[in-house]
Amino acid sequence: MTATANGLLLEASGVSKTYGAVVALKSASLAVRPGEVHALMGANGAGKSTLVKILTGAVRPNAGRIAIRGRERTVHSPGEARRGGIVSVYQEPALIPDLDIRDNLRLTETPVEPFRRWLSELGLEGLDLSSMARRVPLASLRIVDLARALAIEPDVLMLDEMTAALPANLTERVLEVIGRRRGGERSVIFISHRMIEIAAVCDRATVLREGETVGVVDVTAGSEEEIVELMLGQRVEAMSARTAGAPRRAISQGTPPRLMARGLSHGTRLHDVTFDLHAGEVLGLVALEGQGQDELFDILAGSARPSKGELLVDGTPVSFHDPADAIRAGLVYVAADRAEALLMQRSVRENIALPFLTRLRRWGLIDLGEERTKVAAAVETLQIDARAGSEVRRLSGGNQQKVTIARWVAGGVQTMLCFDPTRGIDIRTKAQIYVLLRDLAAAGAAVLIYTSELSEVQLACDRAIVIFGGRLVGELDAADADEQALLRAAYNLGPDSAEEHATAMVADLADPPAGSQRSAAVDPEVNQ
Predict the structure, then answer these.
(1) Helix, strand or coil for residue 425?
(2) What whole-number distance in Å separates Cα of residue 436 and Cα of residue 379?
(3) 39: which strand partners?
(4) What are the C-alpha distances in Å from 274 to residues 60, 213, 222, 284?
């Protein structure tokens, strides 16, 4: 693919898409130059993913113009887009769960040897290609999806929240690969809600708000605030201040912890993990990919049984045979994969009411009035935009995640287990969820949150525990749990080594190669 007279590889203008009464895109435009990493920014529901799906032929637009190499085209399918040099890695892995990795490669005619090379470069050189896709951890599936896209050497690579499900070590590998594509003939369209990643690898950012392109900004030092203001149409300092200033409840020393884990082990992945979770606190859990956090949450949520150790709830030993046992004991689980947690074809009301329907029955009939009252209160508390509420699948990712939390808030919460709950969610929705977790703790609930974003710990938590190699290796108060300290603990490194590692990582990602498209001004042609 070569640049045209106007210097663009890919151009979209006036693109719109509606689903019935729901407007997903109103008037979006995007212009991508050769050799740049171009950020596509916007709050959840702004239309980013819809635009990516239109550009790759997964969705047909209602109106608009798309030009590739300066020639106007209509892309009818992802296969056609792929043959034209445009490939996307979507928010959720596009692999068939009941096929192995090798068969998934055959479906997209992906050459195996280049795929293996990219896997190695991205840190998964030991992956068995005969593994069933459904048995591969989510973070590894994301890397598989990316390696599959890179193996066919696309001219335009679109990454939709590629790093959202990744721990710090795999995120670093991905950003390094993206950074190396700058300055040549190939380009990357990069969607991320993490400003530090945008600053590290992107040259320009197109910002969408409510389905429209509202500006294009050159990514430079200090441009983050301008991007956020364009995204939201307002400043978010008030929300951030509320989050940072949310009350931290004093832990009573006279009552037993809400949840006690004693010497929990599970196979070869989790070893002798002991911690306490108190009513009225938010406890953060930090770990790199595959360090035992999945197994720990499976045990706490009742999906797995420990090979050793015990659990106590309010001082009483418990044993869970399935998730229903954990729910009856007051432990509810909020998954990172909202598609797995929700009934996508059902309404917001049905999804929220589902866990507590048995409590609303009288003589075998459901009290619909009480159900509506509880659901409406939860929707208001979480500020869920339910205009497309006839089906949850029509909601933005952030609103879908709010629904997964609302179902437990509506029924009353004692202990909430959150596994990366803000993955792939915009800044405003993240802040709302932080505030909600703090409010739940202030009301007496206990919250355990695993997060792949280290900055979340000080925003939402009272303290943090760190797991490395399946073992508990550190505990920090929130005041001491800055990203440097957490990175040091997560890698199980000494202070000097960790500081050198973090400094080198930032320097490598922030230093653009020769030929970079970066400049220091707002694009005057589009930002209006």
Answers:
(1) coil
(2) 12
(3) 190, 205
(4) 52, 50, 43, 14
330 Cβ contact partners less than 8 Å away, ≥ 6 residues apart:
258, 313, 414, 415
Question: What is the token pair recorded at 510?
Answer: 């922030």
- pTM beyond 0.85, yes or no: no
Confirm if 90 and 160 have CB atoms less than 8 A apart: yes
d(CA 341, CA 351): 9
User: What is the CA 270 to chain-centroid distance, rounded?
Assistant: 24
Provide the H-helix boundaries in 112-210. Answer: 112-121, 138-150, 168-180, 195-201
CA count, 13 A, side-chain hemisphere, 419: 23
User: What is 87-106 written as a DSSP string?
Assistant: EEE-SS--S-TTSBHHHHHH
DSSP-assigned letters across all residues of 433-490: HHHHHHHHHHTT-EEEEE-S-TTHHHHH-SEEEEEETTEEEEEEEGGG--HHHHHHHH
pLDDT in tens, the chain (528 residues): 444 556 899 999 999 998 876 788 999 999 999 999 999 988 767 888 899 999 999 899 999 999 987 888 888 888 888 888 899 998 778 899 999 999 999 998 899 999 999 999 998 888 899 999 988 988 899 999 999 999 999 999 999 888 877 877 888 899 999 998 888 889 999 998 778 889 999 999 999 988 999 999 999 877 887 887 887 675 444 444 444 544 455 555 567 899 999 999 998 889 999 999 999 999 999 987 678 999 999 999 999 999 999 999 999 999 999 999 999 999 999 888 776 767 676 777 777 777 655 444 444 445 555 666 667 766 776 677 665 556 777 777 778 888 878 778 776 789 999 998 887 777 778 888 888 899 889 989 999 999 887 878 988 999 999 998 899 999 999 989 987 788 778 867 654 444 444 444 445 554 544 444 443 333 333 333
Backbone angles phi, psi at 520, to 5 degrees: -120, 20
| CB 361, CB 367: distance < 8 Å | yes
